[in-house]
User: What shape does this take?
Amino acid sequence: MKEFLKILPQKAQSKKRDFKLLAAKVKKLKPRQADEIFLKLHTETFEQINCLDCANCCRGLGPRLFKKDIERLSAHLKMKSSVFTDTYLRIDEDGDFVFQSMPCPFLMKDNYCMVYSSRPKACREYPHTDQKNIRSILSTCVKNTETCPAVYYIFEKLSKILS
Ligand code: SF4
Ligand code: SF4
Assistant: This one.
């Protein structure tokens, strides 16, 4: 997996045009049909990929944190929300709370998440390929093929179904 992660951005870039064309085909499907196809591919793919072998999203992307995430994480760490915010967070160019630096401060050496049971909503939902109304986030999914091997494989499988 380590070696694959090194070449993933380049591989995804080289297939970007194909993946965008696939996304355009998905966009033309009925919402329910698009969701069913993605959910099936998502389930299949995550039966084959173990996120603990990867953690690429925890290294490079980092979640946006909402008020509820900050409250939950602060309680988990037995810190005041204000102290948690000052210690770990910054406001990004979109005005959202994000971690001050990446890799995530809660990512451990063995790829486990130190705050797994209280992790931010965005971490729970990433890479979003099982979410309803998948047609509304297709451009994000194409972008995520550069970071998440699972999304990359989902698009490769999609090409066999839709080509
Ligand atoms: S969600 Fe994707 S990028 Fe994150 S650990 Fe799992 S396979 Fe890797
Ligand atoms: S909080 Fe946990 S799941 Fe979220 S980015 Fe950090 S290590 Fe990964």
